[in-house]
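note to self: the first set is below, dont mix up w the second
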Amino acid sequence: MSNILPLPKPTAQRAFPNWLEAYVQHQRYSESPLNFHLWTGIFTIAAALGRKVWIDELHFQWTPNMYIILCGPPGVAAKSTTMRQGISLLENVEGVRFGPQSLTWQALLQAFGEAQTSVKIPGQEDPALMSCLNIGIGELGTFYNPDDKELTDQLTALWDGQMETARRRTKKEGETIIKNPWLNLIGCTTPSWLKSRFPKTAIGGGLTSRIVFVYGDSKRIKIPYPSQLNVDGEHSKEEKYLIHDLRRISLLAGQYKLNPAALEYGNDLYSRIHSGNSPDHLRSGRFDGYIARKQTHIHKLAIILAAAKRDELVITKEDLQQAEKYVNRIEPDMAKVFESIGVSDSAQNLGELETIIKNYKKITLKSLWQEVYRTMDAFSFKNSIQSAVEAGIIEKRQIPGEVNNFLLTYIGIKSGKKDEVTNPPTT
């Protein structure tokens, strides 16, 4: 199973031709979903870059900071363990500042003040002041309160990463001035926490449209003892060179420019995003805010992908194509997460029943009711079953000889395939 990365000579400027690919390969003995490692690597490169690089678009700038949330059931996909792999590498890179483990605006403000740094940008006569913070949150629910509207508004504004001055006045401290605050964030949570805590108002033009949700609900592979696969200490050798390259990436500073082929592709990309022909999973108006920011997500990511491969501050067509591919790949799962936020009780009931019916090989209506009667009233149960039938998600057929019992068969909107679900309950 060992697939050792080619280790270069220590004198090489870069150890690997593509840091992100090397990082994901380095995690080959981890059970976590591949996308968890990919987006952790993306966060890691962004942290090394900070606000020292950007794409200038006259009225605004695109910078490489990301808000990434790894989402999955507890104890299955090792979200926090995956996230810590990237942060542990960053701890070896000079100049990377980490934010507070308490996400209050007061704590953020203090941390931004402590992180303020003067940075020399090639081609600029005067050093640039900036305050860059990177935050890794093992349990999002422990550190972020969605009911804190002021903090949510600040996080929303900080995602833009613009060159601006943030001012904050308190009775105790007076006015605090932060030059060019920049926040790069990765966190971990579960679908149930998002359902119960994220308000509906967070959708659309709010914070969630600025977040990349990366979903995983199963182990990629099963390895009881990863250490037994570490041939000749290859893991520590690879880590050494990953840190070497990450330090070099952290030295990049200045304006990224799109080459002619990238500009041509970017124009086509813009037209496609705003054509009104969204994929089926993004047709709901709940995703309008995300679609409006998809171009920004892709260009932020393109900076990171370019930095992973070269020292030249150039965005190529291939960088944009790869960024679009990575974003498109996780959109169906992002849609699942979005649809769970701020939904009505009836929609949650329907979703719960659909999941149970889908997971069973066969289920009767009576058996399904026995599974959920402690958490759902009879009226909601009957309405949800009827809604699922009318939506074409399930088929309901009377069981011969049982007047009040039916067989429920899962169909599913996306695949159109019939998966018989036996043991349907009675309505």
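second set (the one i keep forgetting abt)
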Amino acid sequence: MFFSKPLSLCTIFIENLSIALQTIGGNKLSRTQKLWFSICLTGILVTNSVCWKKFERSGFGRFTSNALSKMFRKNKISWDMILMASIVNIFKQYEVTNGTLALDGTDNKRSKNTQKIAKVSSIKDKASGGFIKGQELTILVLITDKITIPVGFEFHESDPVLKDWKKSEKDLKKKGVAKKDRPIKPEQNKDYPDALDIALKLLKVFKQNHPEIKIKSILADALYGANRFVSQASKIFKKTQIITQAKTNQKIKSFGKYISIKDYFIKNPGVPKKLKIRGGEEQTVTMHGARLVLKAHGVKRYIIALKYEGESEYRYLLASELTWRLTDIAAAYTLRWLVEVFIQDWKGYEGWCQLAKQPGIDGSCRGVILSLLLDHCLLLHPSQTASIKNKLPASTVGSLRDRERANAILETIESLVADTNSSIVNELKDCISKVIPLRKSSKHMSGRELGRLEPTDSLVKYQKAA
């Protein structure tokens, strides 16, 4: 895939972004900055990476990697305000006034020898069960009745001291060492906030930047089921339903005694009910719920057991607001799947998780923002906006990207045909050999000495002896 100029889709998006930037109190983008952002978004879309060299090759050398990289590293752009302005622009275009926030974590595999990329640590590899080097992120997504839009992210890195303590604690427990003889848990290092602190920070920033958006509920998995998260999130967004998964061994109070959630719902099984999944098809779901004191939280929570068709085990939810109905909580939690779909699309089609080697924390954060801007840009694709505003099914990120990649080729050909100066074609031919050099293959022996591969007469005696 190739391009000779920024896609018109990206150019229009950046123009509107510049206007939105002024509305939130920022400085409008200069002509050079607009061009640079348009080139970068087109480059990510065409190459599915955040790589200046790939942009240079795909652009026939018209955009040099050095110039693109220098702008990325040294230009004084308020990147946080850029992302905020893009979100405001989307809200305006789709008239967003309310929605549901969903949190989830993801990771990006890195080389085991990397030294310059920020926030790289050992993380659990779900596929192999072992450990790999990678970057971990927490993603915040807003789900509305029209669109699903990424609105925040933060990198997460484990505290090495706390990590060593947990490993030591596990080993000492196995050896039967008493608690009084084991090392005390170290205090939380502020330089290494945990996943709950990061999630709360993302919620606070969203509330601060977009106070006009009414949040109906906040959804998260079992990692965020601690009282610290649920109670503090309830303070940030007052009277908002916080729904997370609950662990099977958590204790709830029943008839004056504490028993596990699993044991409670064995004694009080659910009943089949019809439930709309993400506002679409109805499914029969076995469910039951009760407002009970959750020991770990010290207050009453709405505890729910759910079992979908074909499942043998219950999954459990806890909700902070007791005024909601059981079916409404269960229906709201089905929306959490949409954040997983966003992450899958983002990692597969929008560049940053495919190839992004910018060093330092600024390099990593800016690379993610560029990638998220492309997601916003595709949300404002004319075909996408037409479908959504007419209440028709939205198009997938992959199909929109493929359409625009074809448009990039078409626009390049159109510019060549329209250009009366025929020398431009010769210039492009010269550029191809410079920016796409042919590399030496190690698969073939051409150009190397193969060596003498044949019998030696004087050594025949060894064959006969054998």
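remember for set 2: The domain at 78-157+192-395 is CATH 3.90.350.10 (Transposase Inhibitor Protein From Tn5; Chain A, domain 1).
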